Amino acid sequence: MTVTSAQRQEKYRNRFLIEQNGPNPFRKKTTIKINLPYRTKISVIITNAYGKVVDKMISSIQNAGTYDLEFRAEELPQGTYFCHVVADNFCESKEMELAK
After folding, report:
1. CA 48/CA 54 separation, integer angstroms
2. How far, in Å, CA of 69 to CA of 5, rounded?
3. What is the spatial distance between Cα 67 and Cα 34, in angstroms, rounded to a whole number?
4. What's the CATH class of domain 3-98?
């Protein structure tokens, strides 16, 4: 996991948000952008189409802000993956396509 940005952005300031990864479909790596409106415990987990966890990107308390998370999938087979974000009373998932 690489957190490349922890800068607050006005348009996302008051809500939880997970944006669709980019690029999608992706090869070796992709970026997932999330926003936290306040300091909270957050889990960001990547699963395959069968629900098996392939990466636990974050499972800790994080400060408010917008984060760009880089997911690397060099060792994974092509297919459908899901990014699950759970924080406080927020839970959302996004579908991601890995192309080889």
Report:
1. 7
2. 8
3. 5
4. mainly beta
Spans of all domains in the chain: 3-98
CB-based contact 60:41 (threshold 8 Å): yes
Q: Mind giving me the DSSP string for 35-48? A: EESSSEEEEEEEEE
Give the chain's length.
Answer: 100
**pTM for the structure as a whole:** 0.85
Radius of gyration of the chain (CA): 13
For the stretch 23-77, pLDDT in tens is 999 999 999 999 999 999 999 999 999 999 999 999 999 999 999 999 999 999 9
What is the CB neighbour count within 10 angstroms for residue 43?
Answer: 14
Instruction: Assess contact for 53 and 46: CB atoms under 8 A.
Output: yes
